[in-house]
Amino acid sequence: MEKEGKTRGKWLFFGIGLIASLSLGWVAFPKIIQVAQEQPVRFSHLKHGEEATLKCEDCHFFKPDGTFAGIPPITKCLECHGGLEITEEEQDLIKRGLAWHIYSKQPDHVFFSHIAHIKMAKIECKTCHQSVGGKTDKNPTYRYKWISGYAPEAMTMKTCETCHEKKGISNACFVCHK
To answer: For the residues of 78-142, what is the DSSP string, one character each?
Structure first.
């Protein structure tokens, strides 16, 4: 009887330990591997979009070969803001360029064509880029997994598959993967 009680006690401690470990891993581990950073400059898509009536393509344009230019260089900003007084610190930033954190960074094995989605499929930028779609005056916090270097809020495979399914487009692996 005494041996049976000790065995039951060991299983009880094992069960409590197992549940505690799983809970800690489920809740804490994702938080441990994520890093949060702010963008190098406070930028308002709201002010530039709605208030200045700029379209996404005014700053984020396509190169002549159809590839997406991505985040514009500071010289693009100076086309509108060139007449403003610029501090020495800002001049230094212009020379060095800004190291923006890319929310939508994808793994190297993923192929994504902006021109196919924006020009050919006529999807609006804000469909995928809701966090910067002109609804807020502040950049969203950039979060990424330090193990992989990818942002968990970035478009996931599930996001793409769901959209392709709604639009009747193939979800075959070769469509998005190199």
So the answer is: HHHHTTS---HHHHHHHHH------TT---TTB---HHIIIIIS---HHHH-GGGSSS-SSPPPE
Residue 177 pairs in a beta bridge with 110
According to DSSP, residue 145 is labeled E
| Confidence at residue 152, expressed as pLDDT on a 0 to 100 scale | 62
C-beta of residue 111 within 8 angstroms of C-beta of residue 176 = yes
Mean pLDDT of 64-86: 80
pLDDT at 79: 86
How many angstroms separate the CA atoms of 124 and 119, rounded?
9
CA dihedral 77, 81, 85, 86 (to 10 degrees): 0
pLDDT above 70 for 71: yes
Contact (CB, 8 A) for 133 and 126 = yes
Alpha-carbon span 41 to 93, nearest angstrom: 10
